[in-house]
Design a protein that fits this description.
Blueprint lengths: L1 E5 L4 H11 L7 E6 L5 H7 L2 E4 L3 H14 L2 E4 L6 H10 L4 E4 L5 H17 L4 E8 L9 H14 L3 E2 L11 E7 L5 E8 L4 E8 L3 H14 L5 E3 L1 H5 L2
Parallel strand pairs: 1-2, 1-3, 3-4, 4-5, 5-11, 6-8, 7-8
Antiparallel strand pairs: 6-9, 9-10
């Protein structure tokens, strides 16, 4: 299976290339990669699947090319809007797309655990989400933090609150963000009850885990029917 890499000069692009050249993925081969001004159309032409960790404006073009050329697309780009998600849904009618704000196995297990906890505890328990990343990360809260918020909201409802001035309302889902140094990624969800609390946490210490997750998604996507899938589909959780 031939893998194309967009954003090859970025952190994730370099990690993906190292993984593919490291010999741990015998069924996957590096077809090529492009930087910001590269020929994306040709990359899709020579690849069976393309892995995209870029920015939303670039990802939109890559989604269109994947649908046009019927090639698998793995999207790890964060900061996608509701409109971008609609574009992904439409393109997935033509090809296989796996999209996730976080490709980590552990984070996707965390999402499943958060859903279970939210469903059992209900809105009487306050939910707070904390995340930390390196100082150069652009979007805040991160895509993973927002996915954790959605996991809570899907089970019990509640409004997202990022500005915490004033008293909170019952059912609110609060977010707090830290940026600094070279933090790869830390996420926690804490449920506060009367006289007790429950915290679920994931810490990433090596960026290579995201590359491995994306490559696992590419392997899984081969042979799947056209559609929009997520890492939880890949992992079966």
């Amino acid at each position: 299976m031939k893998i194309g890499i967009t954003g090859q000069n970025g952190r994730m692009g370099q990690m993906l290339i190292q993984e593919l050249r490291g010999g741990a993925w015998p069924d996957l081969q590096l077809a090529g990669g492009i930087g910001r001004d590269g020929d994306a159309e040709n990359l899709f032409k020579i690849s069976d699947a393309v892995i995209d960790f870029t920015r939303p404006e670039a990802t939109r073009n890559h989604v269109a090319l994947a649908a046009q050329k019927k090639k698998i697309l793995i999207v790890g780009t964060t900061g996608l809007t509701a409109e971008d998600e609609s574009v992904l849904n439409n393109a997935a009618q033509q090809t296989v797309i796996v999209s996730a704000p976080n490709m980590s196995v552990g984070v996707n297990l965390l999402l499943a655990l958060v859903e279970q906890a939210a469903a059992r505890l209900g809105p009487d328990w306050d939910a707070e989400i904390y995340e930390a990343h390196h100082k150069n990360k652009i979007d805040a809260p991160s895509g993973t933090a927002l996915a954790l918020g959605k996991a809570v909201a899907n089970q019990r409802g509640g409004a997202f609150v990022t500005d915490r001035h004033g008293a909170r309302k019952q059912g609110d889902i609060g977010f707090s963000v830290a940026r600094g140094g070279d933090v790869v990624g830390e996420h926690s969800v804490t449920f506060y009850g009367a006289g007790e609390r429950i915290s679920l946490q994931h810490m990433a210490t090596n960026r290579a885990l995201f590359a491995r997750g994306a490559l696992k998604a590419a392997e899984w996507a081969k042979g799947q029917k056209p559609g929009l899938y997520f890492m939880r589909d890949v992992l079966g959780v």
